[in-house]
Amino acid sequence: MSEVEPRTYTSGEICKKLGIAKNTLFRWEREGKIPKAERDWRNHRYYTESHVRAIEGQKERELRYLMERFAQCMIEEKDPKERLVCWQLPAVFKFVKQGQKLGLTELQHHTELAPETIQALLQEALRQDPSSDAFRSIIKLVYSKTCAEPERTEV
Fold it and tell me: What is the pTM of this model?
């Protein structure tokens, strides 16, 4: 009886399957938050079902941290300006920690960005390739919320 080969995934497949960005996957590997990928004879990464479980666990830990941080922020912050940080935290988390562009889209709907949000976005921009879409999107968002003149409506 022949033995069935276990299912493996490329980095692109694993990211699509689990809804994370490649830079997030590679950062978690570098930081030791998930086991390093196996390598094939060409030195290409591949992932197994044990990697899938580890990545799902990391996503769960990060989500739990976000929810605790959000709850703590909402309880402690009484100043409306400070609460702005609390409301922007989930969107920043989605983009910076999980690599989901949806986080940037959500931040575009805020009329202003908290200084802490801007700082987190610019720190993430420094980790990006300057020619990447993510880098351009971050800079465009921060510029539109801090430097661009407000749109004027005719009266």
Answer: 0.58
